[in-house]
Structure formats: structure tokens, C-alpha cells
Amino acid sequence: MTKKLTDTIVKDLPTPSKGNKITYDGEVKGFGCRVTAAGARAFILNYRTRTGRERRFTIGAYPDWKTAAAREEAKELKKRVDRGEDPMAEVEADRHAKNVADLCDRYIEEHLQKKRASSQRDDKAMIQRFIKQEGDNAVKLEPKLKHMKVAEVTFSDIDGLHRAITRRGSPYQANRVLALLSKMFGLAIRWQWRADNPCTGVERNQEEKRHRYLSPAELAALTTALAAHKDTQAANIVRMLLLTGARRGEVEAAKWDQFDLTDGVWTKPGSTTKQKTLHRVPLSAPARQLLSELREEAEAKAKKKGSPLSEYVFPGRGGKGHRQEIKKDWRELCIAAGLVGTETVTDAKGKEKMVVTPNARIHDLRHTYASVLASAGLSLPIIGALLGHSQPATTARYSHLMDDPLRQATERVGAIVMPKGQGAEIRQIKGGA
């Protein structure tokens, strides 16, 4: 007769020479203790589903589970089986449930290609650094989302990661990661991986609109730094940004067939512009000169190597694709030009340290280009057309820079209306109506 299992009996069960051996309980049918050749002990329950399928459910390991508690758990499981449930099916479903790493992979595969090349790079970098926390640039933070089940990620998990990134001294970056996660979990709802978005309600860090323009002295310092920079390709990308006011992604992905150097026109395809429409802009004489020199240099190199000319103005390393990143170069240029500041950040161990950081962004070159146009008195519609703005409100940020030329214009009128040394005598303006 089979004995009722006790802790003493389970503890003294012999270890098989190979495989495993199950000793069953004399009270609850199908309940027993499995002992492996390594000596590990675990409580199990054998049962048969309504369809006749034989199943084995592992309740838990001894001594984490005491025999009496495991027996009671077996009784509860048997009640569920009697109701037509299959406890193992739930375990298997959970085992195969999608985790956050799976969500990242599907997002990259199915959604990322809909975004601009620069946005794709930014999203991939955030996924690697902050969400999957993989690679050389990974930031080790808690909570680690990568292996968490998509359906089990909570508001607290997302809020905790957002605050952890913020504490590193990267409040804007924290907001970008939050926005990316919100989009990904929104897609998870569409894909029926979960029912709600855990990012909803997470308070974003306050962001101030930056209107950073380089002063003439800063421009001069940057020009000097560009001349001395060892990576001439990166330096020329920055020069093109300054000369055209284009976005970084537009310059990096520029192809030779987009340029008419005879008439001095750059036709940007919609695939590279933020507004996703074709944008045709004139090139200044210095910009045309730079491009002509780059073309001559590229043709000479191609001829020397006996290889075809790259379709890209700024080809990638090894001739594959186009140049995609100049962040390291920009940092070096800012340090060389004195465009830096200091800030306190918290490292992965929670220690604060002072670091030197650029106080100008690559995108500020675009603002600088627009500020020069505005200060020269060009109208906002013209500036917007040159920058490729689809909304007038976007260009309106530069309106205050038009104060000086407007003041000069109104002073001219004032000089006619009220000459120096006279009262407010109205004078006839020749040619006026």
C-alpha cells in the first residue's frame, strides 16, 4: 500500500543513478515527489484533461514547499481540472508570452521603416541603451525591462525607468525614451499583447524650448576648429549644415544627383525631409564651391582606385551607404571651439560627478542659419521656404530677430518725417502716394 508522503519520507527518498524517479502519495491520486539523479526534489501532480491528454504539473521544489502545503496545492489543482481547466496550458502560455525584447524586435521590423533615417537611428540607439540595455553604450538602470513580459509591465516600471534616466542628468532623453515606449506599448495593444498602455500617466519632465544661436565670435571659433579637425568628412558635413541650414539627416544622406551645381540648386527628395515632401532650395556660392571641391576630390579618389563614384556626397566607411553619425566629432569640435559647459550627472553607481558637455547642439546650426537670415531682414515666409517649414508657426520663432532690421527701416522713415533739429513736421516723401 502506498504511504502518505511526509517531509521525513521525502527527505529520505533514495537518489536514482540516472534520470529521475517519482514516488507517489497514498492520499491524493497523481500527487508525488520527483527525485533527480542530482538529488533535487520537487512535488508534481499528474492529471488527465477532459480531452484525455495526460499532463504533469510541477508544483514546486522541496524544501521550499513542505509536503503538506504541496498536497493542498495539488488538491486545488485537481479541482481546477475537474472544472475543465488545464493548469499546464496556462504555464506554457506564460512561458511563450512575449517579452519587452520581443516587442522591441517587432517594432523595429514592422514600424521603424516608416520613420526617417535619423529617427530610425535614434530609436534603435534608445532601444539598445535604455530598454534592452545591450552593447558597449548600454546604460545599466533599474528596472530592466528586456526580459519582462509585455503584459506584466506596470506603470511603476515605466515611471521608475523614466526617473532613473532623469537622475543621470538626462531629463530630455528620459522624455524621448518614454515617448518611444508609449508608442511601442500602443502597438502592443493593437497586436493584442496587452490591454492597456503602462506609459499612460507618467509625468514628463518639463522642457524649455531652446533657441540657441551661435554668435559671430562662436561661429569664428567653430570655423577655426573645423579647419583643424582630423575627420575632414565630418568637418565638411558641419560646413554644409552651416551653409544650407539643412537638417543633419538631409546632409548625411545627400546624393550627387540631388544637386545641380551649374544653376546652384539642391532638390531634396521627400524620403529625406521631415515634411516628407520634395524641397527645392538654392545654394549659395560658398556651398556650391564646397560641393564642387568635394565632387572633384571624390572623382579623383574613385579614378585612382578604379572604382565607381559613390552616389552619396558623404559615403559611409568602406563605401557602404552614407555617413550616419558625427556626435563624437561634434563633441570634439565644441570642446575645441569653447562651446561647452559643465553639468552634474549621476553615474550607474549613484555617484555624482561633474562633466564637460557641449552647450550647443548640431541642430542649433540650423537655428543659427535662420537667425542670420532673420537679422538680415529676410521675411519669415522666405526663411520658412529655405528651411522647408510646412507650418508658418515653426518659422515664427525667429520673428524677434527681425527687430534690428525693422528698427533700421523705421528709423529711415523717422529721419524723413522728423529730421534732426526739427519738430514733428510732416515732410513730403518723393515718389510716395
Automatic annotation (TrEMBL):
Keyword Membrane among record annotations: no
One Pfam family per UniProt: Phage_integrase
Coiled-coil regions, chain positions: none
Residues in Tyr recombinase domain copies: 209-411
Keyword DNA-binding: yes
GO molecular function: DNA binding
GO biological process, one term: DNA recombination
Record's keyword terms, sorted: DNA integration, DNA recombination, DNA-binding
Signal sequence coordinates: none
Family note: Belongs to the 'phage' integrase family.
Database matches in PANTHER family: PROPHAGE INTEGRASE (PTHR30629), PROPHAGE INTEGRASE INTS-RELATED (PTHR30629:SF2)
Protein name: Integrase
Lineage start: Bacteria, Pseudomonadati, Pseudomonadota, Alphaproteobacteria, Hyphomicrobiales
